[in-house]
Amino acid sequence: MFAAEFEPAETLGRRRSMRAPVSLDARIGRGGLDRALCKVTDLSAHGARIQTFSELRAGSMIWLALPKVGHVGARVVWADDFEAGLEFSTALSVEAFESLTA
Predict the structure, then answer these.
(1) Where is the PilZ domain (predicted)?
(2) What is the pTM of this model?
(3) How many Å apart are CA 97 and CA 8, to the nearest integer?
(4) Whose CB among 16, 52, 94, 102 lies 3.0–4.6 Å from 38's, allowing a Cys bridge?
């Protein structure tokens, strides 16, 4: 057996980036096929939590139409009734994140 000293790293928990509570009206879909209204309630550069009137399935890919930003590809990481957690295919830019959380 051996012993080693270590210093824990500062982390954001399991998160890769800061989260911000928001209340943004958005849509699920792309182009003229925006199929469902939703509300973004929590946002980070890498993902979002949404409330929707349509049930989503974990593992599915969707387009999320965000105000001021446009369509963002996202994977549904978890879904529970009419709420879901999304991971964006490409992280939001600092400018896009700041404009949505301002």
Answers:
(1) 14-100
(2) 0.81
(3) 29
(4) 52
